[in-house]
Amino acid sequence: MDGPHRHFLGDALRAVKVFAEAAFGVVILGEYGEEAGVRRK
């Protein structure tokens, strides 16, 4: 009976990981992208 719950937990962790990676990329590109002359939207 804990199958769906485990699936939900896995999806939640995956979402957090993706969000963290995206936020990390935004910080890195936002901080250093302008200095390198890179423009991202």
What does this 3D model show about the protein?
The protein has 41 residues and is an all-alpha fold. The chain has a domain at 17-41. The chain contains one helix and no strands. The chain has one helix at 3-32. The longest helix has 30 residues, at 3-32. The mean pLDDT is 77.
Summary keywords:
41 residues, mainly alpha
Short description:
Helices cover 73% and strands 0% of the residues. The chain is built from 1 helix and no strands.
SSE layout:
Blueprint: H1 3-32
Total E-strand runs: 0
Order of helices and strands: H
Proportion of residues in helical segments: over 70%
- pLDDT < 50 runs, ≥5 residues: none
Content-based structural category: mainly alpha
Radius of gyration (Å):
16 Å
The quaternary structure here is single chain
Number of helices: 1
Q: Per the principal axes of the C-alpha atoms, what is the gross shape? A: rod-shaped
Largest beta sheet, briefly? none
Beta-strand fraction estimate: under 5%
- Through-space gap between termini: 44 Å
Average pLDDT level: 77
